[in-house]
Structure formats: C-alpha cells, structure tokens
Amino acid sequence: MDDIRRTLSRRLGPDKVFWLIVAGIFLAYILMQTRVGLAFFFTLVGLLIAITVHECSHAWVAELLGDPTARMMGRVTLNPLRHLDPTGTVMMVITALTGMGIGWGKPVPVSPWRLKYGSRRGEALVALSGPASNLLAALGFGIVLRAAASVSSLHPILYLLLRSIILTNIAIAMFNLVPLPPLDGHSVLLGLLSLSSGRWAWEASQFIDGLRRYGPMLLLGLIILSQFVGLNLLGLLIGPPISFFYRLIMGPLA
Hints:
Number of helices: 11
Largest sheet: none
Radius of gyration: 19 Å
Shape: globular
C-alpha cells in the first residue's frame, strides 16, 4: 500500500491538509447519519493492531538483515502512532463502515543493498515478515480466546472483539500476499523467482517488476470493484485462505 499512499500524497500536493479536513468533516457527517454498531469499532481496533504489528515486523526484520534505517527512524516499536498514516487512517474508518476495513500505515524505509542474501531475497524476507506477523498475532489472540472460553463463560462483547482482531489480522495477511505491487506479495514473488537461475525466471521477474508503475491503480481498481460494484474479485482471491486460517485458529469457536 506504500505506493498508493505516495501517489495520493502527490496528487493532493500542498492541499493535503485541506482535503484531510474535508474528509474528516465528511466522515463525521457519515458517522452522525449512520447507526454505527460495535462491529465498526471492533474492526477499527483490529486494523489498528494489525497494521501496527505488520509495520513493526517489517522494521524489525530489516534490522535483523542488516539495515538499521527503520530503527534509526523509531519504527521498531509497537506504538501505533509511529506507524499510522493520515490518509490510510481515514481510509480505515471509511471502509470499516462498509463492513470490510482496508487501510495502510506509513511505509517502512528499507535500503535493499544493505540486506543480507541480496536485495531481492532480502526484500522478500522483509516483505514476508509483515503477513507472517499478522498470522502469528491472530494465532496469539486465538489462543487467548480459546483458553478464556475453556475456563469460564466468555462475555459476548469480549468474544466479538477478539474474533474481530483475529479475523482482521488474517485478512490483512492474505490481502498483503496478493502478488500485485505495492503489496508484500509482489516482493515475495520476486524473491522466489530469484532462487532460480533459469532464463524463464529472469523474464518473469522483469515482467512482474515492470508492473510497479501500474500496480497501485490496478489495486485500487480491484478494491473498488470488490467494495462497490458487486464483483467481488478480491473476495474470490483471498476469501478461501482467510476462511481456512480462521477455522484453523478458532477451532470449535468459529
């Protein structure tokens, strides 16, 4: 989502603050006109946790692989204020109203030439760490939920909150593994292709790398189709793995 954020920032230009204020007023109007339930707030909590864990993991693994840039900028932290992006946060709130929250944090700065195992493989490991950390977070909250349910009757609100956190982390992980730039899956795929020395792998890498220019617009189009047109291509793509991991983590509580 980093390229989307940069594209939007360039288009907003010096009027970014103005448009963010306009978006905030519009959002406040929607909230006043809409009967917002607990599910909306649970989705926001899940997104806040998922994005914070995701970005912190990128920064931490980048440092483990030899690039201290993110740590020097204070990004190896679970403080959400260090990772939230204004435009991405507004998007989180707006999309949470539709029942499917989508948003992004500030991009984690990475210097690929500093990474171990080469820039392609190093970037792939940094990229993979984000979705992996979300799945681990979902597993951790799942263990808490199942342990609490086994010793006493779980309060419905606590159950719904933990379930939302688990589901959101799984969804963020699967969404980011879509092999389309600027998502993590794009760098992961390039890293996998770099393991082969065949000409086909090089040609595939060149083609996939060339998608960077069009990736953000393609991704936005995919999101718009999935959210507002009724052609849920995104759901068809990531829905099955989300359901699989959700049932696996929740077990009989699913």
